[in-house]
Amino acid sequence: MTxxxxxxxxxxxxxxxxxxxxxxxxxxxxxxxxxxxxxLADVTAAFRGHGVAPVDLRTAGLNVRADxxxxxxxxxxxxxxxxxxxxAVQLRDVAAASRMISDxxxxxxxxxxxxxxxxxxxxxxxxxxxxxxxxxxxxxxxxEQYAALASATLGNVLSVAExxxxxxxxxxxxxxxxxxxxSLSVEPGESRVDAAVTVVWxxxxxx
Length: 207
Fold this sequence. Notes:
The strands form three sheets. This protein has a four-stranded antiparallel beta sheet, covered by helices on one side. Strands 1-9-6 form a three-stranded antiparallel beta sheet. It is elongated and about 90 Å long. α1 (29-49) packs antiparallel against α2 (97-108). By secondary structure, it is α+β, with helices and mostly antiparallel strands. The two termini are 18 Å apart. The longest helix is centred in the middle third of the chain and has 26 residues, at 124-149. Helix content is 29%, strand content 47%. The protein has helices at residues 29-49, 97-108, 124-149; strands at 2-11, 15-26, 57-71, 75-91, 112-120, 152-163, 174-177, 184-187, 191-205.
């Protein structure tokens, strides 16, 4: 008898990953580049002040471009230069993430750009183990039911194969602005890990 079982397990994410950057417009390349470096240093210092380790801070992008404008009768002209840089930060204290992001944004001022926020689990294998156990129990329960319907019992397991699991609904983390506060309220929600297994059993005919 061949049966495929599916299962899943949930866990609260314990790592927040924020993409935050700066974008500075100035009259010269040198001024724009210098301003961006200074603003990003302030943002980085704010995170470090909250205990974020250097290994969890990574510069993810850096560029300088001309700021072009169109003027009637003159055509396209260079109005200045824009320097932008992005920092990817892993926050291992999810409960304090909103305060850390708020402080970092304040440190960089109006030049800060908050690009995105995601969540992850530092030990996904432990969640996968629970999902596999749930998939196994699902397969075994179905096999026992089919065996009973066939007036038989399950024998030895002949083979076990993990198969791609159909993805269930994944709750989206909440990011809401508090009505009476300057910071954002960050809610990590739950992350779901799915698993599926195909098991082949011997079938012992009943007497």
